[in-house]
């Protein structure tokens, strides 16, 4: 089946370190979700960025570039000559040899660029399928095969000069101090050019994205139609048949009431039993559409309830925010349900485990069992349907199931964000920044109608919004943010503004649900702080700009917060910035235990007793802002 290969995916980065089948979700996530290693504890964490190569390693890679200069020149000449000779058919045979050679050289330089930059540089080529003739046609028609010629021109000239310069500077006694300072920047400059030429450009990315989205949409439509057919079949074969039999029994009982009361009574008893069975079957159908416990308790509670219903012991570990977007919760729930059903029906497992975690802007999970193994997504076990569910959220699923077990099904779903900013340069910069940090930009818009359309997407999980948007450039973005939080309570929104306005912070925080932030646009210059703010808001935290906090402090007079000590006010100010206990302790140079004591004292002095409310920190900030 297309799209399935051992240890590789034709639609995404290779998964060399995950044994088994890789089932790519064709929603385009392969451009944003990084390949990860499956850990022994069952989680699939995002891979941290590699450290960039140091001076000595970069110089060693520069020496490798110098050694490969001659093969690059020879490969370039052979490809050009073979292309000219295609007219007499001799060139076709030569290209069958020279193009793989040029690709091998390019792959080595991708590896060196990845080592120097500390970032992956995935190969952009189309997958090779079929016999040698079909593979040759793919080589010849792949635009990246010919883009490698442009890279070889760079590598033979300016790229070679840069690498040679670094090597010579190290070996010169007088120039060694110069090498100490320029080796890293020079090699990173060369690696950046190599990466730009050896990976797909913006146009190719967009084309692949559109093609992947079209395939994902077709799969999703087919899956939805199949679900409707299943529901109709379940209703027809179960409750509908029971209700028809119930109606017949009641009709016969009505006919026998006068002539044979005893027989009529037996028919009524049978009808009562049939009605009970019909109600039970209806409950099963409803649970198959959307389990009530999922709506009531969220993903964690629904998975725990699912584990209790299984005939085998299931170890559950779920660490996610209290509520996720309902469509995402539903997709992950049925993913777990399908995998556990396979463990019981097909694997003969005696135990299973479920791990779901929200970390590094990715919802990752894993279901495993100790069964016989050998699961194949192509054999009709329902795993292809699971991949189709996750595809709608740009998710990616992997299956590792060697003969003898264990079977491990893991998946990742990135955070999908709407970005609204009317300044084209800032919008492009934020898009590139957030994408590089693992976020999925569902839409980047520059006007209010586009923002409202983007926020209607149920798979969107957060938004970064400018206060002022066209057409009137007043507070359209703010009103859109408040509106979506009214429709979807707790929807994460980070609002950016050019100036401090306490009223805006009050209106955003009015719901008391958390998952909201208000920052000045100046804060985007501090990349680490800005990305951390986006992550905290997406995870359900609250972030306020320090200038907003300073403004509030300047206006405080005769308020309940006057009961707080100076240290407690400092702690509350840091809480308003969205910091956790560990971050507050590090900032104030105290222990986390001391921070916890201060927070409990704040709750007491602000009359916020402990109850089932999970947002006491937010309520403390609201009281501080006089909301």
Write the layout of secondary structure elements.
Elements: E1 5-6, E2 21-23, H1 55-67, H2 69-84, H3 90-117, H4 132-141, H5 143-156, H6 158-171, H7 176-198, H8 202-237, H9 239-256, H10 261-289, H11 292-309, E3 314-319, H12 326-345, E4 352-359, E5 362-369, H13 383-391, E6 396-400, E7 407-414, E8 416-420, H14 424-436, E9 440-445, H15 448-455, E10 462-466, H16 476-487, E11 493-497, H17 502-509, E12 516-520, H18 527-538, E13 542-544, H19 546-555, H20 566-576, H21 581-588, H22 592-605, H23 616-624
Parallel strand pairs: 3-4, 8-9, 8-10, 10-11, 11-12, 12-13
Antiparallel strand pairs: 1-2, 2-6, 4-5, 5-7, 6-7
Helix pairs in contact: 1-3, 1-6, 1-7, 2-3, 2-5, 3-5, 3-7, 6-7, 8-9, 8-13, 9-10, 11-12, 12-13, 15-16, 20-22, 20-23, 21-22
Proportion in β-strands? 5-15%
Global morphology:
globular
Strand order of the largest sheet: 1-2-6-7-5-4-3
Helix-and-strand structural type: alpha/beta
What is the assembly state of the chains in this entry?
single chain
Total count of strands: 13
User: Which residues sit in consecutive blocks of at least 5 with pLDDT less than 50?
Assistant: 1-49
Give the fraction of residues assigned to helices: 55-70%
Described by strand count, sense and barrel closure, the largest sheet is: 7 strands, mixed
End-to-end gap = 58 Å
In angstroms, what is the radius of gyration?
30 Å
Mean of pLDDT = 75
Secondary structure tally, helices = 23
């Amino acid at each position: 089946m297309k799209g399935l290969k051992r240890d590789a995916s034709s639609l995404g980065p290779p998964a060399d370190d995950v044994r088994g089948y890789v089932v790519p979700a064709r929603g385009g996530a392969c451009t944003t979700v990084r390949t990860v290693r499956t850990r022994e504890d069952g989680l699939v964490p995002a891979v941290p960025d590699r450290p960039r190569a140091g001076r000595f390693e970069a110089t060693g890679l520069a020496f490798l570039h110098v050694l490969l200069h001659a093969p690059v020149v020879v490969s370039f000449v052979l490809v050009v000559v073979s292309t000219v000779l295609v007219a007499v058919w001799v060139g076709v045979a030569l290209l069958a040899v020279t193009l793989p050679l040029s690709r091998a050289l390019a792959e080595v330089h991708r590896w060196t660029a990845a080592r120097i930059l500390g970032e992956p540089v995935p190969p952009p080529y189309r997958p090779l399928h079929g016999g040698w003739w079909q593979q040759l046609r793919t080589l010849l028609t792949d635009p990246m095969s010919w883009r490698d010629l442009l890279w070889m021109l760079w590598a033979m000239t300016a790229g070679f000069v840069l690498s040679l310069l670094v090597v010579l500077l190290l070996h010169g006694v007088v120039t060694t101090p110069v090498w100490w300072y320029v080796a890293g920047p020079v090699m990173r400059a060369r690696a950046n050019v190599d990466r730009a030429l050896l990976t797909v450009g913006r146009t190719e990315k967009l084309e692949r994205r559109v093609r992947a989205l079209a395939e994902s949409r077709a799969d999703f439509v087919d899956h939805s139609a199949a679900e409707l057919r299943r529901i109709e079949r379940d209703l027809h074969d179960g409750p509908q048949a029971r209700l028809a039999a119930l109606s017949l029994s009641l009709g016969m009982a009505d006919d026998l009431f006068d002539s044979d009361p005893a027989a009529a009574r037996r028919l009524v008893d049978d009808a009562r039993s049939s009605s009970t069975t019909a109600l039970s079957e209806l409950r099963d159908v409803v649970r198959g559409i959307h389990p009530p416990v999922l709506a009531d308790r969220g993903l964690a509670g629904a998975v725990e309830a699912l584990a209790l219903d299984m005939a085998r012991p299931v170890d559950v570990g779920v660490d996610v925010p209290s509520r996720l977007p309902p469509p995402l919760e539903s997709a992950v729930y049925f993913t777990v349900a399908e995998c556990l059903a396979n463990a019981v029906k097909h694997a003969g497992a005696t135990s299973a485990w479920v791990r779901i975690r929200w970390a590094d802007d990715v919802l990752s999970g894993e279901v495993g069992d100790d069964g016989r193994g050998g699961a194949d997504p192509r054999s009709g076990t329902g795993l292809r349907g699971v991949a189709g569910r996750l595809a709608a959220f740009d998710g990616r699923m992997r299956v590792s199931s060697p003969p003898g077990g264990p079977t491990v099904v893991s998946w990742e779903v990135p955070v999908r964000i709407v970005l609204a900013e009317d300044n084209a340069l800032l919008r492009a910069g934020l898009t590139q920044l957030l994408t590089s940090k693992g976020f999925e930009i569902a839409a980047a818009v520059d006007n209010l109608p586009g923002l409202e359309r983007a926020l209607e997407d149920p798979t969107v999980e957060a938004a970064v919004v400018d206060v002022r948007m066209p057409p009137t450039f007043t507070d359209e973005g703010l009103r859109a943010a408040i509106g979506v939080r009214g429709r979807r309570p707790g929807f994460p929104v980070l609002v950016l503004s050019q100036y401090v306005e306490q009223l805006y912070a009050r209106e955003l925080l009015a719901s008391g649900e958390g998952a909201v932030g208000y920052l000045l646009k100046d804060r985007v210059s501090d990349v680490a702080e800005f990305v951390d703010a986006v992550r905290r808001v997406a995870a359900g935290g609250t972030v306020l700009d320090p200038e907003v906090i300073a403004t509030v402090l300047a206006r405080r007079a005769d308020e309940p917060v006057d009961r707080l000590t100076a240290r407690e006010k400092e702690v509350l100010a840091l809480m308003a910035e969205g910091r956790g206990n560990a971050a507050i302790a590090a900032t104030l140079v105290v222990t986390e235990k001391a921070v916890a004591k201060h927070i409990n004292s704040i709750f007491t002095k602000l009359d916020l007793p402990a109850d089932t409310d999970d947002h006491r920190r937010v309520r403390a900030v609201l009281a501080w802002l006089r909301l």
